[in-house]
Amino acid sequence: MASGELQFIRNLRSRAGRPGGTVRLGIGDDCAVLRPPKGHDVLVTTDFSLEGRHFHRDWHPAASAGHRCLARGLSDLAAMGAHPMAAFLSLALPAGFTRRAANRKWLDDFLGGLLHLAKQTKTPLAGGDTSTAPGDAILADMVLLGSVPAGTELRRSKARPGDILYVTGYLGGASAELAALAQTPRRFRSANPTGDHPHLYPQPQLRIGHRLRGLASAAIDISDGLSTDLTHLCEESRVGAIIDAESLPLHPLLNSKGDALQQALHGGEDYQLLFTAPASSKIPRSISGTPITRIGEIVRGKDITLRNNGKPERLQPAGWEHSL
Ligand code: ADP
Ligand code: MG
Predict the structure, then answer these.
(1) Which atom of ligand 1 is nearest to the CA of 130?
(2) Contact (CB, 8 A) for 245 and 304
């Protein structure tokens, strides 16, 4: 996309601002140059945001699509207790995309949403790639680098029987908001990241992740749904779990029609943290204004049990899974 591409990158470079800190050289050269803080390990995560799969141009405000594109990887860094170091955006746009003013506006707002969250979380955009997509869909991939003091990252695999299970914030809000968005996208056109929009503008729990290093035994972010992500954590740790339905912090957007519990258990993309800590660990009731709720405990074996009205039932992972 020749001149379009050059213009786009020039614009992006000025909007991304001058890097600093761990980014010694950002957008403009063949590679970025990073210098991790002394004595730190580097963590890397990458996430696709594909039109039609992760966002819909006729549902999502462009700023929300940009925000979510970065939020996914930031939530992975949060889950491991990492500080963001740099972000890289690979973007493929349909041929001729920027010829239409409405599309240029979309792109502008997409980057606006992404860069707003980048600034808020001190995550410099340090590079990327721009290309023409083979089809009509916008394809974006984000690579994020983060750092932790050497050897202190939180992992999925360190939960032990007897540990207590906690979750941050509220569950099910993202799937409730997504259902409303799909029905009446117009209602959400002026939504912005300062409001509570669990689907459109999820807030990665970076501060909580940092606080949990040294407090938690294991952690994972809830991207696919509590039932599925708890299963991942238990499998990696080779343990089972018991959770109490009554204790789950239901998001206020969930109506009480009876499927609220199902959405809290299986609805994806809440980007909250699910973590375990030894019973002797003093876990605060809230961190940076976000409530921390005890929802169950880790047990021996590999079964995950849901106690609902005192009745124990087997909890199957029923969250998000890509069919390949
Ligand atoms: P090269 O052809 O050597 O890979 P490019 O022309 O693709 O370089 O990119 C020039 C500069 O612009 C590089 O620093 C690259 O990281 C940056 N860049 C290109 N596309 C993006 C993008 N979508 N987001 C952020 N930076 C980008
Ligand atoms: Mg090059």
Answers:
(1) 20
(2) no
What are the tens digits of pLDDT across the range 54-109? 999 999 999 999 999 999 999 999 999 999 999 999 999 999 999 999 999 999 99
List all residues whose CB is within 6 A of at least one atom of ligand 1. Answer: 9, 12, 27-30, 89, 91, 125, 127-130
Question: What is the phi/psi pair of residue 290, to 5°?
Answer: -100, 125
Distance (angstroms) between ligand 1 centre and the Cα of 16 equals 12
Domain 2-149 class in CATH: alpha beta
Gap between the Cα atoms of 45 and 21, Å rounded: 20
The protein residue with its alpha carbon nearest to ligand 1, atom 8, reads 30
Q: For the chain, percent helix, then strand, then coil, each to nearest 5?
A: 30, 30, 40
By the CB criterion, residues less than 5 angstroms from ion ligand 2 are 30
Supply the DSSP symbol for 38: T
Q: Which residues pair with 40 in a beta bridge?
A: 149
pLDDT the model gives residue 252: 94
Mean pLDDT calculated for residue range 241-266:
91
Q: Which ligand is nearest to the CA of 19?
A: 1
Which helix (H) or strand (E) covers residue 29, if one does? Answer: none
Q: pLDDT digits over 106-161, tens only? A: 999 999 999 999 999 999 999 999 999 999 999 999 999 999 999 999 999 999 99
The CATH number that domain 164-314 falls under is 3.90.650.10
pLDDT at 319: 79
> What H or E segment, with its residue span, contains residue 216?
none
Tell me whether the CATH fold assigned to 2-149 matches the one assigned to 164-314: no
Domain extent listing, the chain: 2-149, 164-314
Measured between alpha carbons, how far is 149 from 40 in angstroms, rounded to an integer? 4
pTM: 0.95
Q: Which residue(s) pair with 290 in the sheet?
A: 287
